[in-house]
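User: Hi! I have a protein structure encoded as tokens and I'd like to know what sequence might fold into it. I'm fairly new to this, so please keep things simple.
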């Protein structure tokens, strides 16, 4: 039990370090990425992809394949990424804040564990969990893209939002074809993605 706890804390510390570095990099990306791509560096989909990819890579290791390890990892990475963005932006002369009550604090707290579990489910031997895992990624990418096109495309351009939608659709399609065998699991992945994307757009439309 002690060894398990130490390994979990180690993975969480690694996730915090990765999140801080990647989040800090997005501060520069927001300024230096070309044109419409700069929206990636300050979007739900952008930070979600970073947290999801980290969870997938880390949970490939057997010692990280406990659900609480993965959920905590997603939480830590998402919080650290946003904190890294805030710290680097502030040091660069663009003051920002982050803490309880802030929208991104709430988003990281609620979405982080789900993202961590979705990354863990990438490796699951159960097709139903693989379907649910990819649906989390696809729903956020598609929902964020649609929301961006509807709400802010006039000021940010459409490039990143279209890419976000394309990434979500491509990821869903690839997993459905290559990693899901039955029509039920494929229908589940598509259905969860549709519901999740619609919910994402609805929530952001009232914020």
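Assistant: Happy to help. Inverse folding works backwards from shape to sequence: for each of the 207 positions I chose a residue that suits the local structure. Here it is:
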């Amino acid at each position: 039990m002690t060894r398990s706890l130490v390994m979990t804390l180690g993975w969480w510390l690694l996730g915090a370090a990765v999140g801080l570095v990647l989040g800090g990099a997005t501060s520069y990306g927001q300024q230096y990425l070309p044109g419409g791509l700069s929206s990636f560096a300050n979007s739900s989909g952008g930070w979600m992809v970073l947290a999801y990819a980290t969870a997938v890579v880390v949970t490939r290791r057997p010692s990280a394949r406990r659900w609480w390890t993965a959920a905590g990892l997603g939480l830590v990475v998402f919080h650290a990424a946003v904190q890294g963005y805030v710290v680097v932006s502030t040091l660069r002369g663009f003051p920002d804040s982050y803490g309880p009550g802030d929208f991104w604090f709430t988003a990281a707290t609620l979405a982080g564990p789900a993202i961590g579990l979705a990354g863990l489910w990438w490796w699951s031997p159960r097709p139903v969990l693989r379907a649910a895992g990819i649906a989390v990624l696809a729903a956020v990418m598609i929902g964020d893209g649609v929301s961006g096109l509807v709400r802010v495309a006039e000021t940010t351009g459409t490039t990143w939002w279209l890419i976000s939608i394309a990434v979500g659709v491509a990821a869903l399609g690839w997993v459905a074809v290559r990693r899901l065998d039955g029509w039920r699991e494929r229908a589940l992945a598509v259905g969860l993605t549709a519901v999740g994307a619609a919910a994402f757009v609805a929530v952001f439309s009232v914020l």
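A useful reference point when you look it over: DSSP finds eight helices and no strands in the chain. Feel free to ask if any position seems puzzling.
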